[in-house]
Design brief:
single chain, globular, 139 residues, alpha+beta, 3-stranded antiparallel β-sheet, 35% helix
Length: 139
């Protein structure tokens, strides 16, 4: 069987991200410490960055095709590599869901413009290959 492509997309309004930025305990349940660090400017929260990371996490989760599962917020980490490009790092249950789906590598793109952020996630996976484990997956 040939690998199949999967695409996930999600949109998060800036208003939702603004509300979350003012509820630090809730935001800390959704973003890792590194994501929180990346989502702050000297003058306060990066609302567009928060919205983009949340949208990207939702888009990545959709790739797993895991009905009945809850989104493992902190297991899907959206970081920034040199040049500002987003990169996906999986851990814990998110890595297990990716493994179960035969997902080896995930690409993500994020855009934001008032009033929302949109993210698209893409993978080519082999659902019959349950031993896939890409360089971004942490076990």
């Amino acid at each position: 069987m040939r690998p199949q492509s999967r695409v996930g997309i999600d949109m998060v309004p800036f208003g939702r991200a603004r509300d979350l930025a003012h509820d630090e305990p809730l935001l800390a349940r959704m973003l890792t410490a590194e994501e929180l660090r990346l989502s702050r400017h000297d003058d306060g929260p990066d609302v567009a960055g928060i919205a983009g990371r949340l949208a990207a996490k939702e888009a990545v989760f959709k790739l797993f095709h895991a009905p009945g599962q809850t989104l493992p917020w902190r297991g899907i980490e959206i970081l920034t590599e040199d040049g500002g490009w987003p990169v996906v790092r999986l851990a814990g249950r998110a890595a297990e869901l990716a493994l179960s789906a035969g997902i080896d590598d995930i690409a993500v793109s994020i855009t934001h413009d008032e009033p929302c952020a949109v993210a698209v996630a893409f993978t080519a996976c082999d659902p019959n290959n349950r031993s896939a484990h890409g360089s971004d997956a942490q076990h």
